[in-house]
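Follow-up to my post from last week.
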Amino acid sequence: MSLTIGDIAARLGAEAAGDLSLQVARLRQPDEAGAADLALAIDPEFAEKLKGRAVRAAVVADGADWQAMGLEAAIFSGRSRYTMAGLSRIFDRDPAPAPGIHPTAVIDPTATLGEGASVGPHAVIGAHVTLGPRARIAGQVTIGDRVTIGADAYLMPGCRIGSDVTIGDRFIGQANAVIGGDGFSFVTPQPNKVEDYMAKGSITESLDPTEYVRINSLGSVVIGDDVEVGANSVIDKGTVSDTRIGNGTKVDAQVMVGHNVQVGEKTLLCAMTGIAGSTEIGNRVVLAGGVGVADHISIGDDSIILAGSGVTNRVPPKSVMMGYPALKQEVFMNIFKAMRRLPRLAEKVTDLQNRVSKPDHKG
Amino acid sequence: MSLTIGDIAARLGAEAAGDLSLQVARLRQPDEAGAADLALAIDPEFAEKLKGRAVRAAVVADGADWQAMGLEAAIFSGRSRYTMAGLSRIFDRDPAPAPGIHPTAVIDPTATLGEGASVGPHAVIGAHVTLGPRARIAGQVTIGDRVTIGADAYLMPGCRIGSDVTIGDRFIGQANAVIGGDGFSFVTPQPNKVEDYMAKGSITESLDPTEYVRINSLGSVVIGDDVEVGANSVIDKGTVSDTRIGNGTKVDAQVMVGHNVQVGEKTLLCAMTGIAGSTEIGNRVVLAGGVGVADHISIGDDSIILAGSGVTNRVPPKSVMMGYPALKQEVFMNIFKAMRRLPRLAEKVTDLQNRVSKPDHKG
Amino acid sequence: MSLTIGDIAARLGAEAAGDLSLQVARLRQPDEAGAADLALAIDPEFAEKLKGRAVRAAVVADGADWQAMGLEAAIFSGRSRYTMAGLSRIFDRDPAPAPGIHPTAVIDPTATLGEGASVGPHAVIGAHVTLGPRARIAGQVTIGDRVTIGADAYLMPGCRIGSDVTIGDRFIGQANAVIGGDGFSFVTPQPNKVEDYMAKGSITESLDPTEYVRINSLGSVVIGDDVEVGANSVIDKGTVSDTRIGNGTKVDAQVMVGHNVQVGEKTLLCAMTGIAGSTEIGNRVVLAGGVGVADHISIGDDSIILAGSGVTNRVPPKSVMMGYPALKQEVFMNIFKAMRRLPRLAEKVTDLQNRVSKPDHKG
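User reply:
Got it. Predicted complex:
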């Protein structure tokens, strides 16, 4: 891959200066960049690292003195991370499967693939599947029966799409992600004693469930447009209705979304977050890494749950929560500060007790 | 799929009324159900949602006035979730592989498959494997050498069964689950300093292990009857003896069971729970979501560990535990309530100090 | 497999006594061992279990009276777990793929495989891949374009190596591990409000991100020599530079290493540990099970983070930390002990208030 500075600037919609015909092959950090690379030097601290290197071109902050940096050409960045998104598209060497259907792929004759779809080696596509145009199905993906996926999907190796799943446009499913696992739902012939005891906090007899009878998932998973699901994440099917993920929501790696969960739009579920069955997550919510959310509750729109928290109760919109059980961040921090002083507080109380008890205290 | 109300009631062992010859195609929630569906309206609240819809048949609570709901036929439910389990079997459209062995499957000539077994595309079955009757092996499953699995197994796409694993009847392994990963077990040439320092709480020199020498897993995994393992879960092999999962135990998605762990019967391991090496979990235990259990300890029969807890010590039978480190639920809740009042308590102590110190306090 | 006691002792570099020509087939715990097995009886407690069994040979502690145990031959152990590592290599029946390239494997003609490499059924190897000598690639592994892996690699079924990943010698990638997932990195057209609100702890308006624009991962993953990655773990690519894992570091199952993370040498990442983006983990660090580490921080060399902890700030070298947010172990334990007494402390304060307020207290 070799691109001119002028081309890159044009594709970014950014200003550029110097030798616009200069060609670069890769985007690199200043301390790893060579003469054939475009250095990423928006941050003044990084620009400093260009000194003494053979770098000829860089992306720099608006108004930066690129010539003083020893460059022959420069692209000016507006908002740095947004520029980064554009650059990452331009320089991406994404290992998409080669165009066309690999001869080892097993595709049911009733499946319909959109124009320009590619299917990699050993992929398996079931009956009555519909894939939109330009779908990129990597090797060893499986797609179950009656699945519908919109335009421009990209499924990475080992991604598993269960039967009856419906997904919108521009979906990305990373390696070994499972969309449409079976929900964890069992019933006992007699009334189950577990919930009683969880409420009471003590157990007086055996919990013997006689047997657990499985409730198969009759619902499936419905996913909107512009959704991504990270590597090894799992989204379970609903029991009767569908588990749902709204438009523009991004799911990181090793996330678990339980059966019947409803996730809104433009919500972020960061790595290792788990959402138990039938819970509703609103729009524009951020669940940071390692968050656990109990079943049958709701988290309101525009809320942020900080990393490692365990949410056990309904969260109103626009809340910032942390801890286990999760509390408002301000409340948690006040308690946490007081906890850090707790050993000292205990000493103070002992001291007070001594003083109040002493005869001579009484004057 | 089309079934009559009479057939469904007969298969459920339930009472029915009205036009028993009426045919329905799917089970649906009242607000999603149409004229061709059987609505699930056991809960009176859901029954209310039938109003104004074209629904002709529903499952209703015992004694419900189905004709007043505008229905032409009704099935009466006993215990609602148990009825649900039966309904979920009747309406299941489980994407089982087509009968027979797909020509792309690679099956070692020494493997033995029971009567009626089906094997999907690109599945790989190793040497000296024995599968019971009616096994359903989906596409892209791998089964290692010398594995034995009982009757009616269902392995979903990408499920990995390691070598020498033994599994009973009616096993379900969901997509990308790994049964028989290698245990995480390393040894250092010199005595390892880590445990000393963990006990002491301070580190005075480099932990340099020189090198970690791997202990290969010579044991395997032994799983009883009626066990299910969820998507992307991992059960590691034992070091010398086997890791064991008892009859009727259900393992949710993204659970991690370490080497040498012994799990009893009819126990539930909910999503994202991790059990460290050599720990014993009793019978009829519930580990709720996101629970961590330390190595070399035990959790007694009929215990419940609430979601997000970290168990660091032995738990007696019939305990309800929560928190990190986990405490009895009642103890935890008393502490948690006191913690919430802790900032106020600190103020009280400061106030007391002021009053006790003031000269005029002494009266 | 059948080995003589003499051969085993020689391979271990250990002393042996008795009938060195005696043959054994398997290594077993004393209570599971039979006449054809070598019993593992180093621990005196285990040696006791040999009584009354048909066992003829055992590994025993240095100086143990093997003849009194009823044995015909014995191997003497030095450091028991180190001996165990040697034994586990000798008795390993690791299901390596059969030598050679399985005809169903799909290997790009530009890939280069070292001498003695084996590739299992349905494996997929991309363009410009280089595998070192004796690589064992199990069935259904995928290796992306431009990947380089050193000598003696072992990739288990379903292991996914993303494009441009570089790995050293003696690498083990367990089943369904994903090396080189795409980083979770998104940018919004306007400045993102999430970080502001996380700092402030309260949200005053909608977080509406308009849209999340994806930053593709241009970096990849660089892994040193002697590294193992457990089942279903994920290591994400870097954004511009590479995510790095140092020599001799061992990663357990279901671990998540985020984009740009730098992990040092001989470090242990135990099961279900997650490290957020751009964080640096030093050398010889132990992150016990279920640890979460925030983004953009560092954990110093020779530190131990106890299981279930959440690390939110920089950790100096040689620290032992626990809790959430993680504190020094000693500090945490003091607070935890005080918390356990907190309900009693609150009573004391109430009692003091009563006494200080009472008129007769004033003497």
